[in-house]
Amino acid sequence: MTTPTSSAAETGTGERTEERVRNLTRALISEKQRGFLADRPSAVAALARLRRGAGKQIAQVPDLWGLVDTGPLAEVPEGRRRPTEAELTRAEDAVHVAVTLWALHQQSRGTAMHRLGSRTEPRGLGTAARALMRPGDIDEPVRKRFVRAGTAPTLSVLAQRLREIVLLLRGADIPLDYGLLAEQLYLWQSPGGQETVRRAWGRSFHSYRPAGATGDDTTGSGSAAPDDSTDTPDKDAS
């Protein structure tokens, strides 16, 4: 298994930091998504606030501080190593970017735009970008946006470029696994992580097959799967 060195350290629950980022993001979004789809006023209002942070880092939107509870990332039971300040900062930024992008994606949609990926139904970024295109055809403007995201020099720029893609996904009602995206955003910030994540996104883009296609190998929007994986354990492909 090959992952960036800094992300391999274990934190409070025995999970690696990237696993905690993924699981916390999924839990946060699932709760907010249920409330929004049930038309609860508090959830609708929270989504409206969150989407104002889409494409920005957490330090740029102090109005959202406290709305996305990243406290569990720093919780460490006795005998476990506390994450370093650098790990916590990367983790908090990854969760914030993913949750706010989901809020933008979910806006005005009557179905869930965050859905877990699996080997049979991958829902990673590369798969979603390819699903925007007609079978057998490469939409050049979409491809260019996807490439631009992959070559972003900083997390701030990456968040802005992902925002462009999310708007396209929203228009096409194509869901995304935002827990997986958050995990990859965390790894992207780690030493050597950009290459790892770019490779995963590119592999999932090229391995995409439309539903019902013959000979498809649409494995892995979950983090153990080949196409959108970041070389993490099999239990995460769910």
From TrEMBL:
Organism of origin: Streptomyces tsukubensis (strain DSM 42081 / NBRC 108919 / NRRL 18488 / 9993)
Gene this protein is translated from: casB
Ranges of compositional bias, category Low complexity: 211-225
Residue segments, region Disordered: 1-20, 207-238
Protein name: Type I-E CRISPR-associated protein Cse2/CasB
InterPro entries: CRISPR-assoc_prot_Cse2, Cse2_sf
CDD domains for the chain: Cse2_I-E
Classification via Pfam families: CRISPR_Cse2
Domain of life of the native organism: Bacteria
